[in-house]
Amino acid sequence: MTIRALLAATALSLAAFPAVAEFALDSRYTDADGDMVADIPTDPSQLVDPATLIFAYTPVEDPAVYAEAWADFITHMENVTGKKVQFFPIDSNAAQIEAMRAGRLHISGFNTGSNPLAIACAGFRPFAMMAAADGSYGYEMEIITYPGSGIEKIEDIKGRTLAFSSETSNSGYKAPSALLKANYGMEAGTDYTAAFSGKHDNSVLGVANKDYDAAAVANSVMIRMIDRGAVNTDQIVSIYKSETFPTTGYGVAHNLTPELQEKIKEGFFSFPWEGSSLAKEFSKSGEEKFIPITFKDNWTVVREIDAAMGVSYACQ
């Protein structure tokens, strides 16, 4: 069953429940141009031009690895913007969204599933995504287990523990939950025990170390972990692989000055990948450049999954 077919099936199964609101921005933001992201304020008093720009990558198991991976990019961004740029390690999707909402985070990469909530609640304006040299992009959701677990197919998860990363994650929670419910009639708490590891890295390590019977993960993260020796291929068995999803969306806080937002965009799209610390890490999953994206177009399937799952974008 394709992603859209399972979404339709899941939507039918949820038909008896009250409908949730369609995607909409929090009341503090406006969207006059209809592009589904917050407009840049027209009142100069609402704009900010910080001396130091804070940059965060999506939460990972070992932030030190990614501080090093992003080092060349940060130097390049400092040269383009003329500002100091500081890498800020994030430990959860919720903390990342709250940091931008509170004005403490200016440039960020939000994972696939967190993009809608970051846009709705924190004024995130995504404009870029990593891609291969030919412009292709994305990753797949895989459900993995360990050799000898007794799990050879999805039905075997019944009665066992399945690890998710976090409830805001597309591949780490929403897509696999929709898949298990629509295709197999399996629900957490009834047919299997759900555990939340907090991050894809933790889920992969948890399966490799036999702490979890199985896990739903973004395979781009798993591929990079295998490549740098964090886990070995003989510790992992994949029992399901989805269609391709868009990957991490990169962008800025809506209230940076228009001139600064353009400089930051320039920093992304002019970044010299070849031989860089970023290439060393992300070439492991086939990514070699930044390409322009729009939330309205590139995140359609993610919003459809959210709708099928009954996700609310109400801000806390």
TrEMBL record:
Residues that span the membrane, as ranges: none
Gene Ontology CC terms, in alphabetical order: ATP-binding cassette (ABC) transporter complex
All residue ranges annotated as the Solute-binding protein family 3/N-terminal domain in the record: 52-285
InterPro entries: PhnD, Solute-binding_3/MltF_N
Signal peptide (residue range): 1-21
GO biological process: transmembrane transport
The keyword Metal-binding is assigned to this record: no
Record flagged with keyword Signal: yes
Pfam families linked: Phosphonate-bd
Highest rank taxon of the organism: Bacteria
Family (UniProt): Belongs to the phosphate/phosphite/phosphonate binding protein family.
PANTHER family assigned: PHOSPHONATES-BINDING PERIPLASMIC PROTEIN (PTHR35841:SF1)
Protein name: Solute-binding protein family 3/N-terminal domain-containing protein
Annotated organism of origin: Frigidibacter mobilis
